[in-house]
Amino acid sequence: MVPHHQRPPVTPSPCHPITVSPCHPITVSPHHPVTLLPCHPITLSPHNRVTPPPCHPVTSRPSPRHPQELRSACFWRAVLAEALATLIFVGVVLGASAAPGPLAPALAGGLVAVVLSHTLGTPQANPALTLALLCTRKLSALRGAAGLLAQCTAAVLASAAARSALPDDASLVTRVSAAGTAGQAWGWETFATFQLALAAFATANQAAGPAGLALGSAVAAGALAAGPFSGGSMNPARSLGPAIVTGIWDDHWVYWLGPVPGAVLAGFSYEFVFAPGASREKLGACLACRDVAPVEATSPTPSSPSTAPPRGPPPAQQGQDAA
């Protein structure tokens, strides 16, 4: 019997290639059996080269995100919070608008903003803020669209209720001051909404107490500053509801083309310039319509309080303190 190490190698015939069936294992040595998986037969060419079967790329379709989001309870809870917050905010501001002058609506809007931040978890209740979150990739498209629809619907309902309760419905509509122009009103609406959105972005990750106080102060300050020129709306839904109910659309474009660009500019300024995690990579991901969360996770900055561990005193100082 010929020993195993002296056996001549198996040379395939040039005319008959050897095809290994997937059902029979090939044993290279008695101690290391190699078993082929039952996928495709391997054909040995005449030059003793293993020719693998042609590969077929596997294409996987990403699962749709929107149906999963629609089945989420958090999604509908957030939409309901937007509708309820807008209904309360617009109703309170319209009720205070019956008083002469911009002081009462400004104080009412600031106070109700503080209350809503403590009760409903700082909802936007403002289409300009929602669009700013969409542009900075902080909100999904479906949730943003649902939030906008909920805000506008709630504003119309609040305006209808206020019109039925107030004797004069002309005070409900935000109008350009007779002493100014539409251009001046547009500028003041843009500026007032810019400072409001800047406060909203800066306090997004803070506790409800400081965040609500900052938002309420920003609402009151913006309404007092822009009130003599444009009525101090800073909220397209607050102007849309009374316009639909009363049919008065004078200079209505001011209350969309002013607050929306102001809020978007404030969102970009904070997220990509002043925020602790601001970077050019984050801005590039946003402009390329990619998710900015992985960029924020992989490129922390030294100024970020969440990534810099607290430093204790030097060893010499620790020894003095212990002594």
Describe the fold and architecture:
This protein has 323 residues and is mainly alpha-helical. 55% of the residues lie in helices and 4% in strands. The protein contains 13 helices and five strands. It has helices at residues 65-70, 73-96, 103-119, 127-135, 141-165, 182-202, 208-230, 236-246, 254-257, 259-274, 280-287, 293-298, 315-322, and strands at 18-20, 26-27, 33-34, 42-44, 50-51. The strands form two sheets. The chain has a three-stranded antiparallel beta sheet with strand order 1-4-5, with no helix packed on it. Strands 2-3 form a two-stranded antiparallel ribbon. Helix 4 (127-135) packs antiparallel against helix 5 (141-165) and helix 5 (141-165) packs across helix 8. The protein starts with 17 loop residues before the first strand and ends with a helix. 34% of the residues are buried. Mean pLDDT is 79; it is low at 55-64 and 301-323.
Observed structural traits:
13 helices; 323 residues; globular; mainly alpha; single chain; 3-stranded antiparallel sheet
Helices and strands in order:
Elements: E1 18-20, E2 26-27, E3 33-34, E4 42-44, E5 50-51, H1 65-70, H2 73-96, H3 103-119, H4 127-135, H5 141-165, H6 182-202, H7 208-230, H8 236-246, H9 254-257, H10 259-274, H11 280-287, H12 293-298, H13 315-322
Antiparallel strand pairs: 1-4, 2-3, 4-5
Helix pairs in contact: 2-3, 2-5, 3-7, 4-5, 4-10, 5-8, 6-7, 6-10
